[in-house]
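Need Hydroxymethylpyrimidine/phosphomethylpyrimidine kinase's 3D structure for a figure. Predict it.
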Amino acid sequence: MKVKKALTIAGSDSGGGAGIQADIKTFQELGVYGMSVLTAVTSQNTLGVQAVYPLPPEAAARQIQSIGEDIGTDAVKTGMLFDAAVIKSVARSISSFGWEKVVVDPVMIAKGGTSLLQKEAIAALKEDLLPLAMVVTPNIPEAEELTGMAIKTEEEKKEAARVLHRLGASHVVMKGGHDEDVEKAVDILFDGENFFYFTSPRIQTKNTHGTGCTFSSAIAAELAKGHSVYNAVSTAKQFIQAAIEDSIQIGNGHGPTNHWAFGRRNQLGGKALE
Ligand SMILES: Nc1ncnc2c1ncn2[C@@H]1O[C@H](COP(=O)(O)OP(=O)(O)O)[C@@H](O)[C@H]1O
Ligand SMILES: Cc1ncc(COP(=O)(O)OP(=O)(O)O)c(N)n1
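Structure prediction for Hydroxymethylpyrimidine/phosphomethylpyrimidine kinase:
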């Protein structure tokens, strides 16, 4: 059987809603063989992040080497990288294997406010990783950090996308999950020339833990299958919409999105799950 493969380079979320766990579940649901390179272990649940245990940069390099020298991958997604040394090590390893379908989710801060990226690592993210990105997927606060711009209006979002494209990312998706006063969740894709809008109804729920991780890993899975960036983002948007609509009420804080909703709905002809 010929399978497509995707690799996530990210941190572990013990609660299973974000990080490596969200990525692997998404890969599986989208029919892609998932592999993981761990950069940090977090003690985390629906209430937030209780502790972060970063791994040394050699650990990431060695794991990537093990995968690259034997199995290979059709696409890569990066998530929580925590510090500059890990970012540089990951960028070197990705370049050395010549992997091109790279989705960079520039994870900075978890929902409860815990930092998942050191402030001084932002320069490395811009200089070392963005030039390798086929797609970068910032939320608005992340785009503000990366560009140094205050982003409020649609024109500012488009200008930020142009700046990130100039920094080397071939496609930019400006995610609209944080525009809570807007009725729709609007993500804007920029390919260096044109802007494309992906719009869905905003779902009123507190269970949005892991939305960014799930969205970016869905893009990586679709790229691994050979789809265009536009089609990959389009499927990822449908995947995350279903995952939030059918989100899971567990724990006492922000519950996780539902990774099996998209596939099960397709089996049920589009109906929401009971
Ligand atoms: N309440 C919501 N309703 C519908 N879509 C949402 C909602 N919140 C986030 N999204 C979508 O989830 C994806 C991740 O966005 P976002 O939450 O901004 O990322 P992050 O988790 O990195 O902050 C985007 O496609 C965004 O439009
Ligand atoms: C280990 C780990 N990686 C990334 C995140 C951030 O996930 P995200 O999808 O942005 O979701 P929220 O944290 O905003 O719920 C994380 N929390 N943990």
